[in-house]
Amino acid sequence: MQRTIIVVGGGPAGLSFARSLAGSPHRVIIVDPASRETLSAPPQDGREIAMTRRTQAILTEMGVWERFPEGQVHPLCQARVLNGSSPFAMHFGPEQGDALGHLVSNHLIRGALFAAVEHQPNVEFHLGRRVVKPLATETGVSAVLDDGTELVGDLLIAADSRFSQMRDALGIDASVTRTGHTMMVCRISHSAPHRHTSTEWFDHGRTIALLPLQEGQSGLVVTVPDAEAKALCALDDKALERRMAGFLGNRWGEIALLNRPIPYPLAMTYAARFSGPRCALIGDTAVGMHPVTAHGFNFGLLGAWRLGKLVAQASDPGATHLLKRYARQHRLATLPLYEATRQLVKLYTDDRLLARPVRAGVLRLGALPPVRRIMGRLLSEARAA
């Protein structure tokens, strides 16, 4: 008997989950407020996504990796971490192979996922629509849309962002950590070579990341207090370029902004539960990571893929034991790094004099060979789950 799965959210997590059900007998319904035109050709949002080798393996299996445009996949061979004005740097490299992972623009990932799912035989879309009344019980699920359409099924998937209305409607609490900082992202050109190395720089009062793209270009991520971000956004192009170049000092040579930075206020979220009666949370709805570890997309994809594999051929995809297994596995995979990231962000945004030697000490501890190997393995995630 064919079963029906309702997915609320047509972003990367929702589309990845649907794609993991390719070949499944289940019917998949995706609901999203965006139009088909927007999902098929997402606008550039400035974000460059660092994808691990595990993520590459999953996207290859899904038939998505091959859809990225030629020349738009950039190798990430090394990573380094700096603290303030100290010349000391902590370096990470892959345990095997020649890259930790790859960088791809977020809008290209979203477009490739939609292209892979758009004509999947068991998937149908309700686009330009919102769910106004979800219900999930032991006997079944339903979702009333804003045009009055009622969808009924056997499993309800919430994938509608870290500030999920679906999560709230299903009665699932979440821990929300608002950082008081805003991430500003853009592309820059620079005269110094990046050597396919990403740089995370915990400067005083701000965090800076350089993500290597084609030669002479990088994605720039500057995280500053909300009030400072607002003031930066008010500057004209020339003044803004001077400020951004000033943040970088002389580390990357001559700097030019290729587009104005796009601001994203930062918050971390972690759901109290990842599943309930005939419902499950995936992507940022389950775990909304801080971008400092670049694992938000990777965790979201892994969770969606893992859940999809569990329910794809199940006679009842909403069975409690399957959803509990997913929740247990995803919590084990995400909670340690989530908590470590939370503490790291707290430490490296603390500019009090007492915190500065601790920051330097943690960085040097991370440079020890055993710790560096563990971090390199974590960042590259060479083995598929």
TL;DR of this structure?
The chain is α+β, with helices and mostly antiparallel strands. The protein has helices at 12-20, 36-40, 53-61, 106-118, 165-169, 226-233, 237-248, 296-311, 320-348, 355-366, 369-380, and strands at 4-8, 27-32, 48-52, 74-76, 78-83, 89-92, 101-105, 123-127, 131-137, 140-145, 150-153, 155-158, 174-190, 197-203, 206-212, 217-225, 255-257, 262-271, 275-276, 279-281, 287-288. The longest helix has 29 residues, at 320-348.
Nearest-integer average pLDDT:
87
Portion in beta strands: 25-35%
Roughly how much helix do the residues carry, as a percent range? 25-40%
| Count of alpha/pi helices | 11
The poorly predicted ranges are 358-376
What Rg is obtained from the alpha carbons, in whole angstroms?
A: 21 Å
Note the topology.
Elements: E1 4-8, H1 12-20, E2 27-32, H2 36-40, E3 48-52, H3 53-61, E4 74-76, E5 78-83, E6 89-92, E7 101-105, H4 106-118, E8 123-127, E9 131-137, E10 140-145, E11 150-153, E12 155-158, H5 165-169, E13 174-190, E14 197-203, E15 206-212, E16 217-225, H6 226-233, H7 237-248, E17 255-257, E18 262-271, E19 275-276, E20 279-281, E21 287-288, H8 296-311, H9 320-348, H10 355-366, H11 369-380
Parallel strand pairs: 1-2, 1-12, 2-8, 5-14, 12-20
Antiparallel strand pairs: 3-7, 4-7, 5-6, 9-10, 10-11, 13-16, 13-17, 13-18, 14-15, 15-16, 18-21, 19-20
Helix pairs in contact: 1-4, 1-8, 8-9
